[in-house]
Amino acid sequence: VDYINHTRADHILTIEDPVEYIHKSSSAKIIQKSVGINTPSFKQATEDALRENVDIVMIGELRGPEEMDNALRLAETGKMVIATVHANSVADTVERIINEFPGDVQDNYRARLSENVVGILHQNLEIYNGSQYPVVHGFLVENASDQSEMRKGMHNREKLASLMKNEGFSWVVTHKKAFTELNEKVKFKDVEEARKRFVVNL
Fold first, then answer.
1. Of 108, 53, 100, 49, which Cα lies nearest the Cα of 74?
2. Are 4 and 34 in contact (CB under 8 A)?
């Protein structure tokens, strides 16, 4: 959000609980809403955003089906949506969203997600020898081939996990890549022991 604020003349809306970082409008115009102060809920704020003249919506957390559906609707109208979801991995992020909806409409939501998701980044704070280390893995959809693979992955958790593990997207950071980058910075004394802790199944 900060990068966009200083490089693009967009209208940005953030919805947070609470607002963690105060942005001052630069190239962009930013409006920040705090749940419980400026809006009663994420659900209400995301519904309101559908009627507002905004280009980018940052949603602090997708907690339930109503705001998840609203986030998809925002994306389908051409808005950039940046949101967080509590999940254990990239593949689990998709299942976390889909499982919020009744079984008879899940295929519809999988299809909508596959058409609108441009990337998923997953971050863990791993504790190793008493210290915390951020570990990030994820992918971006950059072309038609990525889009095709994304559609397949959306309908099968194991397929998406396999795409991540085997670098099936144009831009992808696997657990192995993330650990290699982390080790270059930290220089773990016992690399193999640390690798077992950080490189896990997707």
1. 49
2. no
